[in-house]
Amino acid sequence: MKRSPVWHPFTQHALEAPMKRIVATEGAYLIDEDGERIFDAISSWWVITHGHRHPAIMEAIRRASENYDQIIFAEYTHAPAEELARGLIAIAPAGLEHVFYSDSGSTAVEVALKMALGFFHNIGAPRSRICVLEQGYHGDTIGTMSAGERGVFNAAYEPLLFAVDRVPFPEAGREQETLDAFETFCASGQVAALLVEPLVLGAGGMKTYPASVLGELKRIAERHGSLFIADEVMTGWGRTGPLFACEQAGIAPDILCTSKGLTGGALPLAATLCTAAIFDAHLSTDRRRTFFHSSSYTANPIACAAALANLGIWKTEPVGERIEALAAMQRRRLRRFEGDPRFCNMRQAGTIAALDLAVPVGGYLSDVGPRLRAFFRERRLLIRPLGNVIYLMPPYCVTDADLDRAYDAIDEAASAFAAGRL
Ligand SMILES: *Cc1c(COP(=O)(O)O)cnc(C)c1O
Fold first, then answer.
1. 288 DSSP 8-state letter
2. Which of 26, 165, 206, 327 is the most exposed place for a label (fewest CB within 10 A)?
3. What residues does pyridoxal 5'-phosphate bind to (predicted)?
4. What is the CATH number of the domain that holds 235?
């Protein structure tokens, strides 16, 4: 067979099984060319919140496409973007008053970094450093890779990555080390911003840490006049329980990045929200203080309409109850593995459940992830472990039966692994 010209993301084509074509999506399922229904237990890389093809979102897309395609977003504006910005400000943590649109989580974070540097530049007190949590992930562009954990994923690009100040991840019982390290970096007076994923480090291995630490980090940043950037690209839209994870710490960031669930996952869109102080630092008759950023598809009206429909769903449907129910479903099922020596580090943050497959020390770890993935795939489950970290982040429409099937398969996979049959 002639090979496909398509180059897939995060895919080693030399090792990958032939790809199944998906012909439709529905609720918690992907439907493939053979008519098989695959349970999307990771919400198609964390984007689908309510379920695939929520009728209200699809209807909004259809209607918007009757009036709009793409419209230049300088000089001109449009109702979907205006209404969405007001809607976002109304539900976001207090103090966020402006919305800058882009089209992916990575660009939302790039925009945030530029806003932070631009703020200090424009007020005439430039700062040069960005502080991050170790093991964080913020995207795959040069800037966001710089801020993320370094490793095999970005080794080739190292020459272009800029240096950031890394604070240790707040491991249980060692939270003070994290806070002290941040305080020390701040003392230089050069930290423009702390960039963090609130409560859960996603791609870094679904590592969770307490809201109290998040709150303390915010207070330290405040004391030193450093900006606090919440990368809520994964944690937003109810994944950890409340709409935004920051709410659990009772804090309001200076900048908030949202993308993935913003349109319910239906279309690419991102927003970087910021305070009036940051906007005002760019407001000047001096053109040099302009915020110099755009992408061609800034604020695509159809994507904005999809996001508005998503906001509508949050207002009119019992989304909070579904999230609570899902969190309870996950909690009950995780219990089955309590004290089970095949697993360690069971953890949960709202709708997200994760556990580590206990692996012997050694080189085997490197391909346990792909082996597990193949095992789940054979069982019509879309579960993509991060190394030996198995996690489930299903859409909120998931049923008990779907989750049972996923947990049964995890159980089976662990036994197969223990018996050397994986
Ligand atoms: C996925 C993710 C990003 C990057 O989003 P893309 O849309 O893939 O560019 C950034 N930050 C976090 C926390 C993410 O989980």
1. G
2. 26
3. 105-106, 231, 295-296
4. 3.40.640.10
